[in-house]
Amino acid sequence: VYSGKVQKQYFRLALSREEYLLYYRGNIKWVQVNSESGLKLKFPASFLSRFVSHNGIHGRFQLIFTEQGKFISIDKISS
Question: Distance between CA atoms of 5 and 7, rounded to whole angstroms?
Protein backbone atom coordinates (compact mmCIF):
# COMPACT_ATOMS: atom_id res chain seq x y z
CA VAL A 1 0.00 0.00 0.00
CA TYR A 2 1.36 3.38 -1.04
CA SER A 3 1.43 5.86 1.84
CA GLY A 4 2.64 9.02 0.06
CA LYS A 5 0.65 11.74 -1.65
CA VAL A 6 -1.57 10.62 -4.49
CA GLN A 7 -3.05 12.36 -7.50
CA LYS A 8 -6.65 11.69 -8.53
CA GLN A 9 -7.83 12.53 -12.01
CA TYR A 10 -11.30 12.01 -13.44
CA PHE A 11 -12.22 11.39 -17.07
CA ARG A 12 -15.05 10.14 -19.22
CA LEU A 13 -14.62 7.39 -21.77
CA ALA A 14 -16.90 6.05 -24.48
CA LEU A 15 -15.47 3.22 -26.58
CA SER A 16 -17.59 0.88 -28.65
CA ARG A 17 -16.90 -2.82 -28.45
CA GLU A 18 -15.25 -2.68 -31.88
CA GLU A 19 -12.99 0.20 -30.83
CA TYR A 20 -11.89 -1.65 -27.70
CA LEU A 21 -11.10 -4.76 -29.76
CA LEU A 22 -8.26 -2.77 -31.40
CA TYR A 23 -6.78 -2.32 -27.92
CA TYR A 24 -7.52 -5.90 -26.85
CA ARG A 25 -5.84 -7.38 -29.92
CA GLY A 26 -2.74 -5.29 -29.30
CA ASN A 27 -3.14 -3.03 -32.34
CA ILE A 28 -3.23 -0.09 -29.93
CA LYS A 29 -1.42 -0.42 -26.61
CA TRP A 30 -2.03 2.96 -24.94
CA VAL A 31 -5.11 5.01 -24.18
CA GLN A 32 -4.82 8.79 -24.03
CA VAL A 33 -7.61 10.89 -22.55
CA ASN A 34 -8.06 14.41 -21.27
CA SER A 35 -9.00 14.59 -17.61
CA GLU A 36 -11.82 16.80 -16.44
CA SER A 37 -9.17 19.21 -15.11
CA GLY A 38 -7.48 19.39 -18.54
CA LEU A 39 -4.51 17.11 -17.87
CA LYS A 40 -3.56 14.62 -20.61
CA LEU A 41 -3.47 11.10 -19.20
CA LYS A 42 -1.81 8.18 -20.98
CA PHE A 43 -2.01 4.63 -19.65
CA PRO A 44 -1.90 1.02 -20.91
CA ALA A 45 -5.15 -0.15 -22.51
CA SER A 46 -4.95 -3.28 -20.35
CA PHE A 47 -6.00 -1.15 -17.34
CA LEU A 48 -9.50 -1.01 -18.86
CA SER A 49 -10.05 -4.72 -19.53
CA ARG A 50 -12.17 -5.29 -16.39
CA PHE A 51 -14.63 -2.58 -17.50
CA VAL A 52 -15.50 -4.05 -20.91
CA SER A 53 -19.15 -4.94 -21.43
CA HIS A 54 -21.00 -6.14 -24.52
CA ASN A 55 -21.41 -2.43 -25.41
CA GLY A 56 -17.73 -1.57 -24.98
CA ILE A 57 -16.51 0.78 -22.25
CA HIS A 58 -18.61 3.74 -21.18
CA GLY A 59 -18.54 5.86 -18.07
CA ARG A 60 -16.71 8.21 -15.77
CA PHE A 61 -13.48 6.93 -14.26
CA GLN A 62 -11.07 7.87 -11.50
CA LEU A 63 -7.36 7.28 -12.08
CA ILE A 64 -5.13 7.36 -9.00
CA PHE A 65 -1.34 7.60 -9.23
CA THR A 66 1.66 8.65 -7.17
CA GLU A 67 3.31 12.06 -7.34
CA GLN A 68 5.91 10.40 -9.57
CA GLY A 69 3.22 9.22 -11.99
CA LYS A 70 3.18 5.54 -10.97
CA PHE A 71 -0.21 3.86 -11.39
CA ILE A 72 -2.11 2.91 -8.24
CA SER A 73 -5.66 2.18 -9.39
CA ILE A 74 -8.46 2.92 -11.79
CA ASP A 75 -12.14 2.71 -10.91
CA LYS A 76 -15.37 3.31 -12.73
CA ILE A 77 -17.38 5.75 -10.65
CA SER A 78 -20.48 6.23 -12.82
CA SER A 79 -22.06 5.23 -16.11
Answer: 7
